Amino acid sequence: MSKIIVTGGAGFIGSHTVVELYRAGFEPIIIDDFSNSEQSVIKGIENTIGDSVSWYPADCNNQQVMETIFAREKDITGVIHFAAFKAVGESVQQPIKYYRNNINSLLVIIEMMLKYNVPNLVFSSSCTVYGQPEKLPVNENSPILPAQSPYGNTKQLCENILAQIGLAGKPLKSVALRYFNPVGAHPSGNIGELPIGTPGNLIPFITQTVAGHRPQLTVFGNDYNTSDGTCVRDYIHVVDLAKAHVKALELLDRTSLSPFYDVFNVGTGAGNTVLEVIKTFEMVTGRKVNYKIGPRRPGDIEQIYAEVDKARDVLRWQSSLTLRDALKDAWNWQQKLKEKAEQTAT
In which pathway does this enzyme or protein participate (predicted)? Predict the structure, then answer.
């Protein structure tokens, strides 16, 4: 069984990917400092797969600790690197924090992989690398325009680092997956999005508002050049996204070239406005969302959605779950959190 290190494996996308790795026959090993997740997620993963999972509470920026982990774990065949700060708004306010963490953690991972002969790396990138696209949908050959936020710029820089590592002839095979907007939760309700503090993403803010944890949702701007004036995003179910990482590892396994580097869009190929998401949530759950229209948020782009032909043809992956599925699962997850809180209180 191939060992795969999953940095940030207790996070939203990471936890779902750990489940899909296990089900595909890999042995996932989680590294997470729990700065944006909770240790309870480990139990949620184990309940979902019906087995225990290996994990280390560690910061990927700590080279000494990472050295210990790589030396201890034998026969690692790949790394999926999620561990990064990811809130666009926060990155605008705290750019140094984002540059230091997101770039340095990747450099440490690459150094460890080269030292311990770990061949395959799947990097968690983002559609933010495209900036504000001039033409939609975006494909992997679309221009990489100036990033609209420090977060987006860190993803651009990390992709450049991976490409340069390849050009330098280092024995590393890597794939960057450019995510669009991951949403939803595992259908079991055992794991889902668990933001620390105020959510930076739309869906958990919707579910927390409807659950009564937030007084009101603010929609950031309704004067964009879209069908209803609100931003357009390509919302992909997190389980579909998790499966794309398994496909990326399988691609790297069957690739004989080394060094190797490639990029893939991971989305649905369609976009929805913020107001469409809210209305769909209300239709799926029968619950009203208390929201207001506010000013635009710095760093937000107007609209973006993916062309996904390359992922289908080369990665052998495509999305199968709908926005309705994602919103239903996200609400189920929020209700499960409420049940757990009530059980803890009693």
Answer: Carbohydrate metabolism; galactose metabolism
